Amino acid sequence: MAERDRLVMRGIRKSFGPVAALDGVELRVRPGEIHGLLGGNGAGKTTLMNILFGLYRADAGEILVGGRPAHVRSPREAMALGIGMVHQQFLQVPTFTVVENIVLGTRLRNRPGLDLAGPLRKIEALAERFGLPFDPRARLGDLPMGVRQRVEIAKALYRGVELLILDEPTTMLTPQQVDALFASLKVMVQAGLSVIFITHKLREVLAVSDRITVLRSGRSVATAPRAEATEHSLVRAMVGEAVDVDRSLLFARGEHEAALAQSGQPVRLALEDLSAADPEGRPALEGWSMTVRQGEIVGIAGVAGNGQHALAEAVMAIRPRQGRVRLDGADLSALATQQLLARGLAYVPENRWEDGCLARASLAHNLILGAHRRPPFSAGRFLQWHVIHTLARALIAEFNIQARGPEAQAGDLSGGNLQRVMLARALSQEAKVLILHNPTQGLDIASIEFVYQQLLRHKRTGGATLLISENIDELFLLCNRIAVIYRGRMAGTLKRGQFDAYAAGRLMSGMPGQDAEAAA
Amino acid sequence: MDGWESFIGLARLILLAMVPYTLASQGTMLAGRAGVFNVAQEGIMLLGASVGFLAALRGGSLWVGMLAAAIAGGLLGLALAYFTSTLKMDQFVIGLALFFVGLGASSLAFKLLVGVTLVLPQIPTLPDLKVPLLGDLPVIGPILFNQNALVYLSALVSLGLYYYLYRTSWGLELRAVGENPKSADSLGINVTAQQYAATIMGSMLIGIAGAYLPMVYTGTFTQGIVQGRGWLSIALTFFGGWRPGLIFAGALFFALVEVGSLRVQIMGGVVPHQVLRMLPYLTTILVMIFAFRWVRVPAFLGQTYDREKRSLS
Description:
The structure holds two protein chains of two kinds. Chain A is of the alpha/beta class. Chain A is built from 18 helices and 22 strands. Chain A folds into two domains: 7-239, Rossmann fold; 247-344 and 430-508, Rossmann fold (3-Layer(aba) Sandwich). Chain A has a six-stranded mixed beta sheet, with helices on both faces. Chain B is 72% helix and 2% strand. Chain B has helices spanning 2-33, 41-59, 62-86, 91-113, 140-144, 149-167, 169-179, 181-186, 191-218, 229-239, 244-267, 273-294; strands at 128-130, 146-148. Chain B starts with a helix and ends in a 19-residue tail after the last helix. The chains are: A alpha/beta, B mainly alpha. Chain A binds chain B through residues 16, 53, 55-57, 74-77, 79, 85, 87, 91-96, 100, 103-106, 108, 111-114, 155, 351, 353-354, 359, and chain B through 166-173, 175-176, 179-180, 182-190, 296, 299, 307-308, 310, 312-313.
């Protein structure tokens, strides 16, 4: 058995300070297979792969590549062993061209010269063979994310990898691009490569993998061939006892109460002809108009970087904007962010670390941020710390935040726990409108489930929700309506009952919306 | 004919003055392209001036002095690289600390080897080297081809750095380190080695820039010899957009301002000389206001790279 495996990782341990990220993980990958590595955030998938790729050093354990013990101390050694990795955040130099990015670090034969004609031909041949279209002469920073990912894969193939690691490769892609990616992967494994496909999306891992290993809390809990795995068995393995799978929203089959039509309710939030620019002054959002009714969840779908961030910040007056924002009919266009918060608009930003919290401040401090000038937290000029701490303790219990207490630093929390803090803050301040941007990105299943339950609770109490998400499944699960954003404009809308991933995908890539209507 | 004479004289002075700016800025640029923002130029130049002068005095040759200044600068560069690249400490704090180290060490070395004296010892200044044939051309000859060796060297260094950065795979790797060290690292480029090499080489150039001052202008070392040229070279590096060619052109401009303000000072007149002394700095501020609109600094400039740090962004 062992000699059939291209890669064996056994008993891998790794700690970051007091936290054990990996605790005795085992992984075996055969030649010519797509091996799904499944697990929630914090399960240790990326850490394990970073060890294999030589970016982190394992505290214990052994790695065999091609049956031989391998001590991978740096990415260079990993690449010498035929291991390539496409990171979740692409490791690219935006100011370089595609070719320069691909050849970077390879020992060009004409070194130290920089003659790129030979590499260019090789890259074009690779791109052709594996179905990865891109312009090798383009400046990388000008390319959309889907293309940049192809470049990243080509970078590994150019180095002659035998084992390709893809870390959450579908996050930035439309459904069509995901299909194209999977087709490319199939060509690669037919050519004898092995692919490790890291994901937390069950559907994708079931669609493309030959075998699947599930990680949970730094341990490998199961490896199974695709034929023996079901969505249900994988979820069980992923979440353990943390989520009641049968009653879970996340894995709900068919329609549920989220889908209940909310027509006839009064309009809560109205955006009229909203426009905003990005920090460089280019238009990022143009003429955006929409309404959200009471008890309605309206989704914004789109490939990352199409103006979602501008939309959220424009509504919250975080960046200068033209157009009108109305809440329950009242025009709030002239109000500043602080006043919008007081009126009942709450915002959970995409980047919870940088835009959402004060990483070095306490939980208590973070939980009242935005409401800190209002009673009961502030009496005149002074903060009422006893009130704040009482509230913080209550919220920590209510939202099940894993932290030492109100004094814990926000920056020390895990992604899931910090997101609970964000939601606790938004919902505890009696929000009428909740604006969320990728609220479940990077969260484990239990936390995702929690977020969804909170959204439905908000919905039941008549709150309006604007859910901006790059996860189309999430939008289909929760939303009454979905508007698709493409290059800062509304490309089209989908109503519940007409939701179709391919129709959405076409809108997300800027194709005319006729098909979407027709598909309905 | 007299007009030509004075034009040639002025042009020669400008080329002389541009050498320390060029070398110091190219050195700053080189380290910056690897992501290390060196702010110790003033200190490194002072140390280079002191060590270069003393070594030339004792060793009997200006070239010994140049070499010693380069080594002294390289040592400060090594310290900068060690503290920022290996120990991951803040580049600005370490840079400023090294400025003071250079400041103190330059005076100390002078006091130890020369002592306190009323008559400062002198070294000969760098001789002019006439390029055969080209040196005989009218006007251009005396301006461009009858200069000291370092004028030629600073042009060659600029040209060489341009080729290194943009025409070799080594340069591609160096630039990648300053743009995105994580990417470079994941491609098997030794980020630490690149940063050490660029910082040390860069600081050696800055050290030579310092040694140039006693060897061309004064023939001896005084504490005020660098006169802010180190600080100005940081501004020049930004002005030149961290590109060797533009830095070379920018150095010409900075030298023009320096020589021009001296010239006005000598001619006398209504402008107080303190104002003229301020001129290079004022110009710098004005230039920075405009330059900063279009310069692209290396994306990772001034930040420390730690491979195992789990970045939040």
